[in-house]
Amino acid sequence: MCPAIPRLTPKTGRKKTGNRHLPADSESVCYLHIFLEEGVGMENLRAYMIANSLKECEMDFNYYPADMDSNPDTCQTIIEDGFFLTFSSRETAVQAQDIIKAQNHIRSYELLEISPSPDEVKKQEAPVPGQEGKAPLASASPQTASGTFSQGSATQTNYAPVKQNLISVNLMKLDSLMDIVGEIVITESMVTSSPELNLLPRDSFDNFMKSGRQLRKLTDDLQDIAMSLRMVPISGVFQKMNRIVRDMNQKLGKDVRLKIIGEDTEVDKAIVDSIQDPIMHIVRNSTDHGIEETKEERISAGKDPQGEIILSASHTSSEVVISVSDDGYGMDPHKLLAKAKERGLLTKPEGEYTRKEALSLIMLPGFSTNQAVTEYSGRGVGMDVVKKNVESVGGTVSISSEDGAGTTMTMKIPLTLAIVDGMKVTVGNSIFTIPIANIRQSFKVKAEQVILDEYGNEMVERMGSFYPIIRLHNFYRLDTEVTSMEEGILLWVEASDRSYCLFVDDLIGEQQVVVKPLPTYLNSFELKNYGITGCTILGDGNISIILDILSLHAAAIENI
């Protein structure tokens, strides 16, 4: 294919290749060429808002038309030719590309990457008189990678566009799609577990089950694709923290750098919106009273004069793990216990608190270690709100800290709230579903292994610690013939910093379940305060209650 030869257009001062004009920006090595959806209106302001969202993430770039925010005449230019964002490094362009994916009203975008031509590389490598032994000068003219274009007659470059087409979809439509996929999962389970299949001849049954396995594979693929449509990178939230740390550095007179890891991690859109405020609050806390006040204080402690906060995200099989770590003061559990005792927040003697429980005291309502109210903390509204917001999307918050070495706040959040892996258990004639993520172990015990605490409540020992037992049939007042410890089974469950054992009749098995909200007419009963988070429809058409391990602990143990 004959390469296109761009030329400098006298009116616009932009290079042209084929039907594409590139802004004359000599310092840029990457261009993002963006087209907006047709008929959105106020194209110049919408383009400027997209550029401004990148500015908020502290990115270094230029945009063209440069007067799009103040010149309405650029609307027509953007409608016909789109608009450009130019970057001086490929890394910044890739980060911007991830943020662009989450923006609205974008029809398509194209990443144009610039690379030097062979002639230019030779020019750069050739020694310049009087500059032998020095590094070659960087080229001031832009180059790309597919086709060639030249500026004047000497410079040749190649460019290869990396093009992605985007379409904006109403989130309600994606919710409807997830509902339909959930119904398909339920119906597929109902078909393959139908008792009428036992009436089929052996050969016919085998053929049916072979088709059933293929159907299961296709429904799993459909479910994965439908869930991925709702996934957005968490980079948009993470990048905003750069500005928060920078502003706090200026106002507090500190020198703190923010290191971001795993910003490409994708999470459900609804969850991303819910965790933005918790992450911001934790980063503020770390910067405000996590990092030492002065460089001299850090140097005397043998640390780098510049404080560091690490914001990271990673995936496990069923959840995303977000952590915020600082290398500052750390937290002393004894001081936290003393502060909580002073405020009357302790629920048991100080000596009975483990280190983990003592650190968790900072998430109690009204608990604050700051002596004075500042713009960022000390108002008595803090980590308890963070904990509540994270738990509202099914997540947990945990804290680890070493006095003098720093603190790490870890949030574990489910990838999606629509479909979960659950363990079905029976209690009398009722079937309950417990999320697999909350189950640590299932086991049987003998009656003599169960002890009673000072209040007469049952407890059992696991791995050197004693845990309370909740008998589901007693708590929900269900009729069952299984009341002896030897006949039933115990499930060791854990959520956030709460851990206990559930006594049930038997385990049915593991199954992916579609989480259905409770009917609105049940809202007046406040079932969520009794450990019930939703329900699901099983393969045989029965309804199974999904248990919320955290609120069940609060209802059955903390409120005794």
Strand and helix map with partners:
Elements: E1 7-8, E2 15-17, E3 20-22, E4 30-36, H1 43-55, E5 61-64, H2 74-81, E6 83-87, H3 90-101, E7 106-116, H4 118-125, E8 149-151, E9 155-165, H5 171-192, H6 202-229, E10 231-233, H7 235-252, E11 256-261, E12 266-268, H8 269-290, H9 295-300, E13 307-315, E14 319-326, H10 333-342, H11 355-359, H12 383-392, E15 396-402, E16 406-414, E17 419-427, E18 430-435, E19 439-443, E20 450-452, E21 458-462, E22 465-471, H13 472-475, E23 489-495, E24 498-504, E25 506-514, E26 532-537, E27 543-547, H14 549-558
Parallel strand pairs: 11-13, 18-27, 22-24
Antiparallel strand pairs: 1-2, 2-3, 4-6, 4-7, 5-6, 7-9, 8-9, 10-12, 13-14, 14-16, 15-16, 17-18, 17-25, 19-23, 20-21, 21-22, 23-24, 26-27
Helix pairs in contact: 1-2, 5-6, 7-8, 8-12
Describe the structure.
The protein is of the alpha+beta class. Helices cover 31% and strands 29% of the residues. A 6-stranded antiparallel beta sheet has the order 5-6-4-7-9-8. Strands 19-23-24-22-21-20 form a 6-stranded mixed beta sheet. It is flat.
* Total number of helices: 14
Q: Look at the helices and sheets and give the structural class.
A: alpha+beta
Average per-residue pLDDT, rounded, comes to 77
Classify the beta-strand content into a percent band.
25-35%
Shape: flat
Count of extended strands: 27
Largest sheet: 6 strands, antiparallel
> Regions with pLDDT < 50 over 5+ consecutive residues?
1-19, 120-126, 128-163
